[in-house]
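anyone seen this seq b4? input:
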Amino acid sequence: MTVTVRFAPSPTGRIHIGNARTALFNWLFALKHKGRFIQRFDDTDVERSRQEFADSILYDLHWLGIFPDQTEYQSKRFSSYDAAVEKLKAAGVLYACYETPEELDLRRKVRRTRGLPPIYGREALKLTEAERAGLEQDGRKPHWRFLLPNFASDPFETERTEVHWNDVVRGEETVDLASLSDPVLVREDGTYLYTLPSVVDDIEMGVTHIIRGDDHVTNTGVQIALFQALGAEVPAFGHHNLLTTASGEGLSKRTGALSIESLREGGIEPMSVASLAVLVGTSENVTAVASMADLADKFEPEATSKSASKFDPEELVVLNRVLLHHMTFAEVRDRLLVLSISGKDAEPFWMAVRGNLDRLSDAVSWWKILREGPQTVPELSEEDRAFVSQAFDLLPEEPWDGNVWKDWTAKVKKASGRKGKGLFMPLRLAITGLESGPELADLLPLVGREGTLARRP
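predicted toks r here
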């Protein structure tokens, strides 16, 4: 058996970090088991689904390092769902209902006042053929409910019916079908809700493991019953905890909160996003993992907490810094070229500045400092200005190598009597315009003697 997973968002907006967590859990699970990853777009909501969102989701996944083996659209598969409907009707487990939303709401309120759970009472099963014909003659169109197998012989005498599964993430799980309403599978207008197309697709696409957010745990009990009603083998299920914002708010495609697009445009590295999205809320320490293969090695779905986890974007910057610090020049050469950083100095420049970057784009400002000098006028006291001027008189002759900074400051220390911060800070300000940054021992050979002299205050 080939492990087959799927990621099935609705293309109604940009995916956010919470959606990416689900995609990554599935992708890493497939990697660990040498399986397949299906990208499926649940786009049966034709009014809200848009191709541009589907394209953006694929782009975001590719940026993260996820490359589907297969891409499917539910909007192209209606014939399969129609066939499943007919099969369920023939089996007597899909029945027509005619209540309006207002009538259903009133019935729920009545059940609450009687101390009963506010679930559907299957009143439509009591309708005669003549009554159904009369309702349709009055203009009512039926919606169709799946009859849950939570009774022995009389559907109006439900009994506790437990559905058990060994959850890939949460361990042993149980749902009582008697506590649930028969789910609507088909709306009055003939369109499908999420449940039926999802199950039909999972059957026909050979999905072996369904890994998704834990807001679907109750749905799983219903879907297992539906798999069985359609005569299919039930796949394994896994439900990971959800991510919230740092303030505890839920994430939504509609609000764009922490969208993958915004993180990418903010200069965050894809493996920073993947590392935090996967490891937060697990027993693993959140560390910057350099590759998807390495992340797959660390990935243990059962190590995930059952409670929601807060996602703090500030942690991404910390991870970004670590990843950039260890990136070789070969890994970033092309990206630096796009930033107009090239030539013989590009590699030693990268090695000098990478440990001081939060984002790759930060390298641009250091390249300008290297090429053009300080971007702001250094603020030096009169005493420091005089000291720097004297120090520039002591600049060693070329050629310069990695020892020039050490040689120069040794001369300056001997001539001025200054040491420590009093010696180094004025020189750093004069050369870079900033109080902190890369080691001047690495930068100075790149600036060169002529370039350094041009920065004399």
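The chain is about 45% helix and 10% strand. The first helix runs from residue 17 to 32. kinda curious what u guys think
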